[in-house]
Structures are given as structure tokens and as C-alpha cells.
Amino acid sequence: MAIRVLLVDDQPLLRTGFRMILEAEGDIAVVGEAGDGQQALDQVRALQPDVVLMDIRMPRMDGVEATRRITGPAKDGAARVLVLTTFDLDEYVVEALRAGASGFLLKDAPAAELVQAIRVVAAGEAMLAPSITRKLLDKYAGKLPSGEERVPDSLHTLTEREVEVLKLVARGLSNAEIAAELFVSETTVKTHVGHVLTKLGLRDRVQAAVYAYESGLVRPGDR
């Protein structure tokens, strides 16, 4: 079955460009478009897309709030959100990730990268590389906890090994690099990451990295 994609951007020309790129792929179908966040919510309910390609800065309702509503507890479907941004370190990107986005992509990314991002997110993975998450969180460290706050109770549900894995995910290490660091197999690492996500109620390793910083488990500059 084709991946159902909803395009959300207040610039019709950009939406047309994205549509042309995506519809050239046999496994992707653009099922609708929206020019602002409110329209996006209506279209998600009506069309039930798999992936929403979401601009951040739009009239009426911005992409952050739309993402929060699409992926939140009262969501109307299983749509996953891939955020579009003009700048590499847009100040709203961290907020979008916190709101439930599965990653972000630059608007001027190559066509092949856009297509691959759609496929990755549709498969339930995080498009955003952990190293980029680290870069974003370091840049906006002033908005994050100082590390002196009380550790969330949810963190205590993790085993010692799972806490180690979470710290390494937040540092930007891939599964292969974590396996090498801990002297275990990649399969074991994947299992630990899965347990971490399940226990903390997170949807992917992007949110896991954000959680690690926000809980004070990892602080900008840690190695």
C-alpha cells in the first residue's frame, strides 16, 4: 500500500513542488494539502494520512500547535509528523519535537532526502539523526532544566543498563556505536531502546533524547 501523505505549507508553490517530487514515487500518494494548521487538523481527520509534512510558521495555527494536536492523546488517527523548516536550527524545531514530531527536514533538502524521510517516518522511525537532536538541544540549552530538578519518577522504571542506553542515545550515538560502547550486539541495543521507549511512553529516539535532557539525566556538554 502507498504511504498516504498530507502536505501542509502556507506557500502553494512549495506544496506543488513537494507534490511533484512525491507523486513520482510509486509507493507514495499525496492525499491532500493544507495552507495552515487548522486546515491540517481538518484534513487529518478527513483523509487519515500516514505522514503529515508540516511547515512550522503559518497563519491561524502554527505547525507546533497543529503537531501537538495531531499526535496528542486526543488524536484522530495514527498520522506521524515530519516538520519542515527553512533554517537548520529554527527556534521552533525543539518545540515541535517536544510536541510529538518524528523529526524535521530542511525545505531545501534534496528530493531524494525528502522521499527517504517520508519512508522512514512512515515506517515508525525517527527521521532526525540523534546527533542533530544533540546539536539542537545544545543550542537551546537555556530553555532546558539545569539538572538540579527532581528526577522524574518514570526514570526509575528503567534498569541500570537502560539508563546507560538512554544516555548514549541522547549523546547522539547510533545503535552500532552504542553496541561498541557497551560491548553488546546491535540486536541487544535495539531491544533496550525499545524497552526505554515503552516504559517512558515515548514514540521514538528523538523524543528519548529530548526526555534525557529535560529530565536532567543528560546536560549539554556531557560526554
General description of the model:
InterPro entries: CheY-like_superfamily (IPR011006), NreC/VraR/RcsB-like_REC (IPR058245), Sig_transdc_resp-reg_C-effctor (IPR016032), Sig_transdc_resp-reg_receiver (IPR001789), Tscrpt_reg_LuxR_C (IPR000792), WalR-like (IPR039420). This is Response regulator transcription factor. Keywords: DNA-binding, Phosphoprotein, Transcription, Transcription regulation. Helices cover 47% and strands 12% of the residues. The radius of gyration is 18 Å and the shape is globular. The termini are far apart. The protein has ten helices and five strands, in the order βαβαβαβαβαααααα. A five-stranded parallel sheet has the order 2-1-3-4-5, sandwiched between helices. α8 crosses α9. The mean pLDDT is 84. β3, α3 and β4 form a beta-alpha-beta unit. With 223 residues, it is of the alpha/beta class.
Classify the secondary structure makeup into a structural class: alpha/beta
Strand numbers in spatial order across the main sheet? 2-1-3-4-5
Terminal residue distance: 43 Å
Written as H for each helix and E for each strand, in order along the chain, the element string is EHEHEHEHEHHHHHH
Mean pLDDT: 84
Rg estimate, integer Å: 18 Å
Give start-end ranges of low-pLDDT stretches: none
Number of helices: 10
Task: Classify the beta-strand content into a percent band.
Answer: 5-15%
InterPro entries: CheY-like_superfamily, NreC/VraR/RcsB-like_REC, Sig_transdc_resp-reg_C-effctor, Sig_transdc_resp-reg_receiver, Tscrpt_reg_LuxR_C, WalR-like
Protein name: Response regulator transcription factor
Keywords: DNA-binding, Phosphoprotein, Transcription, Transcription regulation
